[in-house]
Write a structure and sequence with these properties.
Blueprint: H1 14-25, E1 33-37, H2 44-56, H3 66-73, E2 79-82, H4 91-101, E3 111-115, H5 123-134, E4 140-146, H6 154-157, E5 161-164, H7 170-181, H8 185-194, H9 199-207, H10 209-223, H11 228-265, H12 275-319, H13 331-340, H14 343-361, H15 366-376
Helix pairs in contact: 2-3, 4-5, 7-8, 7-9, 8-9, 9-10, 10-11, 10-12, 11-12, 11-15, 12-13, 12-14, 14-15
């Protein structure tokens, strides 16, 4: 069975792709609801979009026709994607998305509705979606993406076909970076290792030197913690770096969205605006503020993941396991830390970082959490 080209960016998921190909090639109707689960970086959204591309392509996913190209750039009218800019997916967003699912396909035989980060739905919001999963219009196919089945209601899990994904290896991610983005081998391997095989983050680190510098500064600020003053200084640095990272990710998109909205409304940036135009601009700016909040939260979460990787490297060295380091570019500094602290201290550091991630999801103020974490991570030299 030949694999369609739309699946070329789906790496290290042969079992999942094989199951989807069987579904595409069967004579009966395609199942109406799917759930793609896997840890961050496993490519949940990528495989959902690839499956959608294969469904709307007349050749089953050739990767070169107009339909495949429209799916790849995100403007196919029959492939709709819900990716919220909020910390949670609101019930209004889901209600509006459901209303779009009721429309007939415009170009293809199917209308595909993809919900990224489905784990961000509250119970009330999930129950609203449940009815559409139970009785979708003919030709409508739902695809949900979440880290695990446990993140969704049992009633939703019982109505979907489940596809479980795994994290690709460092080498597989590095090969993708070299082949698709022309990254040299050394940088590709380092980026893949730093990102812990998270495809999207590895791509960003490999192609954005500013992102690499910010990540390195964040880790070095923690490695420099020796006492309370340096801990508080590191805490402030981590928050500043996360905010800067989030601002970079959103600034260009904000400006592009505003320009596109003004163009659709037929108004120049310097032109006089009607009350209706100002109202639409205000709604856009409010949505962008919500995205900035989530972007900062996501930036902090990336910092926490990187810090857990740092202390995992410390344990790797202390135990002499010989496993590949997540941060080979900081090996000298990590070896010094491994000599200064005990294995119990390294394990406690990882547990504290996990605790802080959990509390941040409960809307505890970021600066309080970072101060507490940084003080815990100060280097208590073993005697």
């Amino acid at each position: 069975m030949q694999t369609p080209r739309v699946f070329r960016d789906v790496i290290s998921q042969p079992e999942a792709v094989t199951e989807l190909l069987r579904e595409l090639n069967k004579e009966t109707d395609v199942h109406h609801a799917w759930l793609f689960t896997g840890p961050p970086g496993s490519g949940r959204s990528e495989i959902a979009l690839a499956f959608a591309g294969a469904l709307v392509c007349e050749s089953g996913g050739c990767g070169i026709c107009n339909a495949c190209q429209m799916v790849s750039v995100g403007n196919h009218p029959d492939v709709q994607v819900l990716n919220t800019e909020r910390v949670q997916i609101s019930i209004d967003e889901v209600a509006e998305f459901i209303s779009r699912s009721l429309q007939m396909p415009a170009l293809a035989n199917y209308r595909i509705m993809i919900v990224e980060d489905a784990d961000r739905m509250s119970e009330r919001t999930s129950n609203l979606l449940l009815k559409s999963l139970e009785e979708p219009p003919r030709g409508t196919i739902w695809m949900l993406c979440a880290p695990s089945e446990a993140d969704l209601l049992p009633t939703i899990r019982s109505r979907v076909r489940r596809i479980m994904l795994k994290v690709p290896s460092v080498e597989e991610v590095a090969n993708l970076l070299m082949e698709k983005y022309g990254v040299d081998e050394k940088l590709a391997l380092q980026s893949a290792a730093n990102a812990q095989s998270h495809v999207g983050m590895a791509r960003r680190l490999a192609t954005n030197s500013t992102a690499r510098d910010r990540r390195r500064q964040a880790l070095l600020s923690v490695l420099s913690i020796m006492d309370i003053p340096s801990a508080l200084s590191a805490s402030a640095a981590l928050l500043r770096l996360a905010e800067s990272d989030g601002a970079q990710l959103t600034a260009e998109l904000d400006e592009q969205e505003k320009s596109e909205l003004l163009a659709r409304l037929g108004v120049s940036a310097e032109g006089k605006m009607t009350p209706a135009t100002r109202s639409q601009i205000k709604k856009l700016e409010e949505a962008q503020k919500r995205r900035a909040t989530r972007s900062k939260r996501d930036g902090l979460d990336r910092v926490f993941v990187d810090l857990m990787g740092l202390y995992r490297d410390v344990l790797t060295i202390q135990l002499g396991s010989g496993q590949r380091l997540i941060n080979p570019d900081l090996e000298v500094e990590i070896r010094a830390l491994a000599k200064d602290i005990t294995q119990a201290q390294a394990i406690h550091a990882i547990e504290k970082i996990q605790q802080v991630r959990y509390r941040m999801d409960r809307n505890v103020r970021e600066n309080y959490l970072l101060d507490s974490l940084a003080v815990t991570l100060r280097r208590k030299v073993r005697r």
